[in-house]
Amino acid sequence: MIHLRRLDDEGLERLLGLAVADTDPADVMPPGWTVDRPDDFRDFYRGFQHDAYEIVADDHTIGMARLTDQGDTGMWIARCARGSGVGLAALRRLVEEAHRRGVHTITADTTTDNTAAITILTQAGATLDVDGNHVTARLPVPAPDAPRTTTQTTPA
Predict the structure, then answer these.
(1) What's the pLDDT score for residue 151?
(2) Which CATH number does the domain 2-140 belong to among 3.40.630.30, 3.40.50.920, 3.40.50.720, 3.40.720.10?
(3) What's the whole-model pTM score?
């Protein structure tokens, strides 16, 4: 079961360890970051810690997801967890979190060569707008189902 855990200082250290051990540095930070610069990683993620979550499976951190109050999102997943449905499950948890936070549309920016992200976004029901190599995905956040009422009729 995949769930999201708000990023705190301990979680930041778990993410850093994961980023160093099991990702491509370009996946987790803007180009130019290298694993020998851990303080840059910490500073970068502290900059949006309010919007960041650890992606957790079986009590192990396997990636990071963010969701801003405006609905902007992004995520990265460790190599060891890719291809197993984690991305789609994490996106579904983000949709649940978006609803709790009053966000009506989730927006993700990626590139046409990021086939994993495009596949996940499409499977989740996002609308994709492609402009050259840039892709903007918009995913509406559905309202929760209205409570159901049942009425029983008794034979006369």
Answers:
(1) 43
(2) 3.40.630.30
(3) 0.87
